[in-house]
Amino acid sequence: MLATCVSRATFAPVFKPRATIFLRARWYSTPSELPLPNKSKVWESVDEAVKDVKSGDVLLCGGFGLAGVPDTLLAALARRKDVVKLTGVSNNAGAGDSGLGKLFNSKQIDKVVASYPGGNKAFEALYLKGEVSLELCPQGTLVERLRAHAAGIPAFFTPTGASTAVEDGSIPTRYNEGGFANGVKIPGIKKESREFGGRKYIMEPAIAGDVAFVHAWKVDEVGNCVFRYAQQNFGTVMAKNAKLTIVEADEIVPTGSLSPNAIHIPGIYVDRIVQSTEPKLIEYTTLAPSPSSSAEPSTLTPEKEHAQKMRHRVAKRAAKELKDGYYVNLGIGMPTLVPGYLEPGVSVQLQSENGILGMGPYPTKEEVDPDLINAGKETVTLLPGASIFDSSESFAMIRGGHIDVSILGAMQVSQAGDIANFMIPGKLVKGIGGAMDLVSNPDKTKVIVVMEHCAKDGTPKILAKCSLPLTGARTVSQIITELAVFDVDRKNGHLELVELQEGVTLDEVKAKTGCDFKVRRDLSKL
Predict the structure, then answer these.
(1) Spatial CA neighbour of 442 closest among 471, 422, 421
(2) What is the pLDDT of residue 404?
(3) What is the DSSP string of 384-424?
(4) pLDDT digits (tens, 9 = 90+) for 18-62
(5) Quick check: helix, strand or coil at residue 500?
(6) N or C: which end of the chain has fewer CB within 10 A?
(7) Which helix (H) or strand (E) holds 494?
(8) What are phi and psi of 524, to 5 degrees?
(9) What is the percentage of the chain residues whose pLDDT exceeds 70?
(10) In angstroms, how far is CA 214 from the centroid of its own chain?
(11) How far is residue 270's CA from residue 255's CA, in Å, rounded to a whole number?
């Protein structure tokens, strides 16, 4: 090796022997002698665990229907009568004395941000009387607003709700005292819109929570959480969002006893853990019909028996639109009858927006599980090959167009394919639920509406223009009623009558339809 020796007099080259250099390896894994985490996040007293919740906080409450609802934590908070003016963020507004219903009963909530609050009649009445505020939000947007804040994203654009009351802010946040007749006290929130790739999107702000209450199945002492079946829903994103996250667990287990492959929420997001003590409740226990039930005489009135027959007629026709291998989402009510009429050899995978793919039939009495419900909060089962996930994942499937067909009910449908199915201003506030998301990508997911042709008062439900707030604009591709089948030209805004149900005449359909329509030349009868 050539080196240079510097002196005052001369510069002369000097040769030095090659040195041997020893490199020390740098280790990136944990040394074996490092002790396991020994700081337990378990609190013995649930009342102590909720002591830092204060008036005016934004409370994130996990659960869908009554599945995965943190009732132990909510009961403890309801005992703290000094904590008031809370903003409750949840998919639902609770029911009876479960979920946010506990805090409505104790008069601790001033505002709700929810997707489907109408299941709580007490809340619906309070809102319509101007005694509580409501920010009504599509279900997929709600979970994404929560996820965004957890990930440090202040806002995002979504197609869900574009060209509806969600965009223009026409759903009041709060009515004046005395209710709807006395006008609006706090108007709805208008949303900015932009076009990307020729499609309209609206900007939604993230939601920041002060406290999150979450119900999990198994939780270890450092906060790693595992959910059971459909218990997960909103729990994952809410736990990651809030400044203070408290989890109630069905089982608290020692650190290291959970497989790292099974963890749904890493412990970094969890601050406190308590034992769940409240019983698990079921909103709608729906059982599979017994073999003998078909032979039993009907107890329905002739009118109701006729209506049921018509509903099954519609479902049977809708089933013909489902092909083998389709991924399908079914709305609540009439759409749930469709799988019973699938043609021989046709197998589909049913997706439920609360986080199920591969949903099976209703359970027997012995199979009923409170952690296993569908989007209508009914008890269900799982088929072999089913998967379970959280609500954020569920609505990524939906908005992304990965569902082949979505079948929904409706109050009104227009000749251009507009659909209205979530509220009657001043009278009915069921909620948006997942419907706006389910119709948000109609070019990839075919939207089929199944409904009665006319309302109870005899007025048409198929109209030139919807008079009720829209769920989606130009989203419906097909309408199936007990009278007829229409295909919708969403681009040009026209209907075409393609089939008549058995025993129905063209004149009858014309008389009961509130808009003009074309008639297919080879019009067929079912």
Answers:
(1) 471
(2) 98
(3) EEEEE--HHHHHHHHHTT--SEEEE--SEEETTS-EE-SEE
(4) 655 555 555 555 555 666 677 899 999 999 999 999 999 999 999
(5) strand
(6) N
(7) strand 494-500
(8) -115, 160
(9) 91
(10) 16
(11) 14
DSSP letters spanning 201-267 = EEEEE----SEEEEEEEEEETT--EE--GGG-TTHHHHHHH-SEEEEEEEEEE-TT-S-GGG-SB-G
What's the DSSP call for residue 164?
Answer: S
Strand pairing class (419-420; 412-414): antiparallel
Query: 202 has which bridge partners?
Result: 158, 193
Burial zone of 494 (CB within 10 Å; 0-12 exposed, 13-18 middle, 19+ buried): middle
Cα-Cα-Cα-Cα dihedral of 104, 106, 110, 116, to 10°? -10
Alpha-carbon span 406 to 352, nearest angstrom: 11
Measured distance CA(253)–CA(323) in Å, rounded: 45
| Residue range 284-298: mean pLDDT, rounded | 77
Per-residue pLDDT tens digits for 408-423:
999 999 999 999 999 8
Going by the DSSP 8-state scheme, the letter that residue 180 receives in this structure is: G
Give mean pLDDT, residues 128-133: 94
Determine if residue 356 is left, alpha or beta; phi over 0 gives left, psi from -120 to 50 gives alpha, anything else beta: beta
**Do residues 223 and 274 touch, judged by C-beta distance below 8 A?**
no
Three-state helix/strand/coil letters over 78-145: HCCCCCCCEEEEECCCCECCECCHHHHHCCCEEEEEECCHHHCHHHHHHHHCCCCEEEECCHHHHHHH
Task: Look at the block and give the residue holding tokens 């089962």.
Answer: 381
What is the rounded distance in angstroms from the CA atom of residue 101 to the CA atom of residue 99? Answer: 5
> Amino acid letter at 187?
P
Q: Read off the amino acid at residue 22.
A: F
Cα separation, 253 vs 262, in Å, equals: 14
As a three-state string, the secondary structure of 288-315 is CCCCCHHHCCCCCCHHHHHHHHHHHHHH
Rounded to 10°, the helix 139-150/391-399 angle is: 120
Q: Which of 124, 135, 283, 353 is catalytic?
A: 353
Q: Give the 3-state secondary structure of residue 330.
A: strand
Would you call 124 a catalytic residue per the annotation? no
And the tokens for 207? Answer: 């939601």
Q: CB within 8 A of 320, min separation 6: which ones?
A: 343
pTM listed for this prediction: 0.91
CA atoms within 13 A on the CB side of 362: 15
